Amino acid sequence: HHASMGLTLSYPAGWRLETLEMAGLVPILEELTKDPEANVDVEGTLTFGNQIKLYASTFEKAPLDVVLIGLEAYRIAEEDDLLTLVNLVNEANRLTSPTLESPPMTITRPTLEGVDDMVVVSVEQGDWRSEAIYLAKDGLMFVVATASRDPGVVEMMHAMVRSFVFDGSTQALFEQYHKYTVDADVLRTSVASLAPKPAPECDIVCRDAK
Q1: Fewer CB within 10 Å, N side or C side of the chain?
Q2: 51-55 and 66-75: which strand pairing?
Q3: Contact at 8 Å (CB) between 46 and 60?
Q4: 50 alpha carbon, distance to own chain's centre
Q5: Which residues, 6 or more positions from 207, have their beta carbon under 8 angstroms from its beta carbon?
Protein backbone atom coordinates (compact mmCIF):
# COMPACT_ATOMS: atom_id res chain seq x y z
CA HIS A 1 0.00 0.00 0.00
CA HIS A 2 1.35 3.42 -1.01
CA ALA A 3 -0.49 5.97 1.12
CA SER A 4 0.58 9.14 -0.71
CA MET A 5 -0.79 7.75 -3.99
CA GLY A 6 -3.84 6.17 -2.34
CA LEU A 7 -2.96 2.91 -4.05
CA THR A 8 -2.58 -0.77 -3.19
CA LEU A 9 -1.07 -3.25 -5.65
CA SER A 10 0.23 -6.81 -5.85
CA TYR A 11 3.55 -7.89 -7.37
CA PRO A 12 5.53 -11.16 -7.66
CA ALA A 13 7.52 -12.39 -4.68
CA GLY A 14 10.68 -12.56 -6.80
CA TRP A 15 10.52 -8.87 -7.65
CA ARG A 16 11.98 -6.04 -5.54
CA LEU A 17 9.92 -2.95 -4.73
CA GLU A 18 11.51 0.41 -4.02
CA THR A 19 10.06 3.87 -3.47
CA LEU A 20 12.15 7.00 -3.71
CA GLU A 21 11.74 7.49 0.03
CA MET A 22 13.18 4.00 0.60
CA ALA A 23 16.14 4.81 -1.64
CA GLY A 24 16.70 8.13 0.16
CA LEU A 25 16.35 10.03 -3.11
CA VAL A 26 13.49 12.28 -2.02
CA PRO A 27 14.49 14.51 0.93
CA ILE A 28 12.38 14.01 4.01
CA LEU A 29 10.20 16.89 5.13
CA GLU A 30 12.63 18.04 7.85
CA GLU A 31 15.49 18.23 5.34
CA LEU A 32 13.41 20.18 2.83
CA THR A 33 12.42 22.78 5.41
CA LYS A 34 15.82 23.06 7.14
CA ASP A 35 16.88 26.10 5.10
CA PRO A 36 14.06 28.71 5.13
CA GLU A 37 15.80 30.60 2.30
CA ALA A 38 15.76 27.58 -0.03
CA ASN A 39 12.21 28.32 -1.26
CA VAL A 40 11.57 24.59 -1.74
CA ASP A 41 8.12 23.48 -2.83
CA VAL A 42 7.80 20.83 -0.12
CA GLU A 43 4.38 19.33 -0.90
CA GLY A 44 4.94 19.27 -4.66
CA THR A 45 8.35 17.63 -4.31
CA LEU A 46 7.12 14.92 -1.97
CA THR A 47 4.05 14.13 -4.06
CA PHE A 48 5.03 14.41 -7.72
CA GLY A 49 8.71 13.60 -7.21
CA ASN A 50 7.70 10.22 -5.89
CA GLN A 51 7.67 6.90 -7.71
CA ILE A 52 7.30 3.22 -7.06
CA LYS A 53 9.96 1.12 -8.80
CA LEU A 54 9.53 -2.60 -9.24
CA TYR A 55 12.63 -4.53 -10.30
CA ALA A 56 12.07 -7.88 -12.01
CA SER A 57 14.00 -10.92 -10.84
CA THR A 58 15.93 -10.65 -14.15
CA PHE A 59 16.99 -7.03 -13.50
CA GLU A 60 20.67 -7.80 -12.79
CA LYS A 61 21.08 -9.29 -16.27
CA ALA A 62 18.54 -7.04 -18.01
CA PRO A 63 18.58 -3.49 -16.55
CA LEU A 64 15.46 -2.49 -18.52
CA ASP A 65 13.33 -5.02 -16.62
CA VAL A 66 11.85 -2.37 -14.35
CA VAL A 67 8.27 -1.14 -13.93
CA LEU A 68 7.76 2.46 -12.81
CA ILE A 69 4.56 3.74 -11.19
CA GLY A 70 4.04 7.44 -10.69
CA LEU A 71 1.52 10.22 -10.20
CA GLU A 72 1.75 12.71 -13.06
CA ALA A 73 1.58 16.48 -12.51
CA TYR A 74 -1.46 16.81 -14.79
CA ARG A 75 -5.13 17.06 -13.96
CA ILE A 76 -8.08 16.01 -16.08
CA ALA A 77 -10.68 18.76 -16.29
CA GLU A 78 -14.36 17.88 -16.69
CA GLU A 79 -14.42 19.08 -20.30
CA ASP A 80 -11.42 16.92 -21.27
CA ASP A 81 -10.52 13.24 -21.00
CA LEU A 82 -7.44 11.14 -20.39
CA LEU A 83 -6.74 10.49 -24.09
CA THR A 84 -6.70 14.24 -24.81
CA LEU A 85 -4.16 14.77 -22.05
CA VAL A 86 -1.97 11.84 -23.15
CA ASN A 87 -1.91 13.09 -26.76
CA LEU A 88 -0.97 16.60 -25.64
CA VAL A 89 1.82 15.31 -23.38
CA ASN A 90 3.23 13.17 -26.22
CA GLU A 91 3.05 16.11 -28.64
CA ALA A 92 4.80 18.41 -26.17
CA ASN A 93 7.55 15.80 -25.68
CA ARG A 94 7.94 15.44 -29.45
CA LEU A 95 8.27 19.19 -29.94
CA THR A 96 10.72 19.49 -27.06
CA SER A 97 13.08 16.99 -28.76
CA PRO A 98 12.45 17.59 -32.49
CA THR A 99 15.76 16.00 -33.58
CA LEU A 100 14.85 12.62 -32.11
CA GLU A 101 13.03 10.29 -34.47
CA SER A 102 9.81 9.16 -32.84
CA PRO A 103 8.91 5.51 -33.51
CA PRO A 104 5.25 4.84 -34.33
CA MET A 105 2.95 4.51 -31.36
CA THR A 106 -0.08 2.29 -30.87
CA ILE A 107 -2.76 3.72 -28.58
CA THR A 108 -5.57 1.62 -27.15
CA ARG A 109 -8.29 2.33 -24.59
CA PRO A 110 -9.14 -0.83 -22.63
CA THR A 111 -11.38 -0.66 -19.58
CA LEU A 112 -10.41 -1.44 -16.03
CA GLU A 113 -12.70 -1.71 -13.05
CA GLY A 114 -12.06 0.93 -10.40
CA VAL A 115 -10.58 3.59 -12.68
CA ASP A 116 -12.32 6.37 -14.59
CA ASP A 117 -10.38 5.91 -17.84
CA MET A 118 -7.37 4.01 -19.19
CA VAL A 119 -5.03 4.64 -22.15
CA VAL A 120 -2.21 2.30 -23.20
CA VAL A 121 0.63 3.67 -25.37
CA SER A 122 2.90 1.04 -26.94
CA VAL A 123 6.07 1.67 -28.96
CA GLU A 124 7.98 -1.09 -30.76
CA GLN A 125 11.30 -0.90 -32.61
CA GLY A 126 12.91 -4.19 -33.51
CA ASP A 127 13.21 -6.24 -30.31
CA TRP A 128 12.71 -3.15 -28.14
CA ARG A 129 9.31 -2.31 -26.77
CA SER A 130 8.19 0.33 -24.36
CA GLU A 131 4.73 0.63 -22.93
CA ALA A 132 3.02 3.20 -20.74
CA ILE A 133 -0.36 2.65 -19.13
CA TYR A 134 -2.12 5.85 -18.10
CA LEU A 135 -4.94 5.70 -15.56
CA ALA A 136 -7.42 8.43 -14.65
CA LYS A 137 -8.85 8.48 -11.15
CA ASP A 138 -10.81 11.40 -9.67
CA GLY A 139 -9.07 13.90 -11.95
CA LEU A 140 -5.59 12.53 -11.22
CA MET A 141 -3.35 10.95 -13.85
CA PHE A 142 -1.28 7.90 -12.91
CA VAL A 143 1.30 6.25 -15.19
CA VAL A 144 2.74 2.73 -15.15
CA ALA A 145 5.60 2.17 -17.60
CA THR A 146 8.40 -0.13 -18.71
CA ALA A 147 10.92 -0.27 -21.55
CA SER A 148 11.73 -3.96 -21.11
CA ARG A 149 12.57 -6.19 -24.07
CA ASP A 150 10.98 -9.11 -22.22
CA PRO A 151 7.29 -9.66 -23.10
CA GLY A 152 6.93 -11.40 -19.74
CA VAL A 153 7.77 -8.16 -17.92
CA VAL A 154 5.15 -6.30 -19.93
CA GLU A 155 2.59 -9.00 -19.17
CA MET A 156 3.46 -8.81 -15.46
CA MET A 157 3.04 -5.03 -15.59
CA HIS A 158 -0.49 -5.56 -16.92
CA ALA A 159 -1.18 -8.02 -14.10
CA MET A 160 0.02 -5.46 -11.54
CA VAL A 161 -2.29 -2.81 -13.00
CA ARG A 162 -5.22 -5.22 -12.84
CA SER A 163 -4.46 -5.66 -9.12
CA PHE A 164 -4.70 -1.91 -8.40
CA VAL A 165 -7.12 -0.90 -5.66
CA PHE A 166 -7.52 2.78 -4.84
CA ASP A 167 -8.23 3.43 -1.17
CA GLY A 168 -10.76 6.25 -1.58
CA SER A 169 -8.31 9.09 -0.87
CA THR A 170 -7.75 10.11 -4.49
CA GLN A 171 -10.48 12.77 -4.47
CA ALA A 172 -8.94 14.40 -1.40
CA LEU A 173 -5.50 14.05 -3.00
CA PHE A 174 -6.77 15.87 -6.09
CA GLU A 175 -8.20 18.70 -3.99
CA GLN A 176 -5.05 18.99 -1.88
CA TYR A 177 -2.55 19.06 -4.75
CA HIS A 178 -4.70 20.73 -7.41
CA LYS A 179 -2.36 23.75 -7.48
CA TYR A 180 0.62 21.59 -8.46
CA THR A 181 -1.00 20.20 -11.60
CA VAL A 182 -1.78 21.60 -15.06
CA ASP A 183 -4.74 20.81 -17.29
CA ALA A 184 -5.19 20.36 -21.03
CA ASP A 185 -5.57 24.10 -21.67
CA VAL A 186 -2.12 24.77 -20.22
CA LEU A 187 -0.69 21.95 -22.32
CA ARG A 188 -2.37 23.30 -25.46
CA THR A 189 -0.73 26.68 -24.84
CA SER A 190 2.62 24.97 -24.31
CA VAL A 191 2.27 22.91 -27.51
CA ALA A 192 1.32 26.04 -29.49
CA SER A 193 4.38 27.88 -28.19
CA LEU A 194 6.67 24.96 -29.09
CA ALA A 195 5.25 24.40 -32.59
CA PRO A 196 7.44 25.60 -35.49
CA LYS A 197 6.40 29.03 -36.67
CA PRO A 198 5.56 29.49 -40.40
CA ALA A 199 8.00 31.54 -42.41
CA PRO A 200 6.86 35.18 -42.75
CA GLU A 201 5.30 36.12 -46.06
CA CYS A 202 7.52 38.03 -48.44
CA ASP A 203 6.23 41.64 -48.60
CA ILE A 204 6.77 44.07 -51.48
CA VAL A 205 10.20 45.17 -50.21
CA CYS A 206 11.25 41.56 -49.91
CA ARG A 207 10.02 40.76 -53.42
CA ASP A 208 11.86 43.80 -54.87
CA ALA A 209 15.05 42.65 -53.15
CA LYS A 210 14.68 39.23 -54.73
Answers
A1: C
A2: antiparallel
A3: no
A4: 11
A5: none
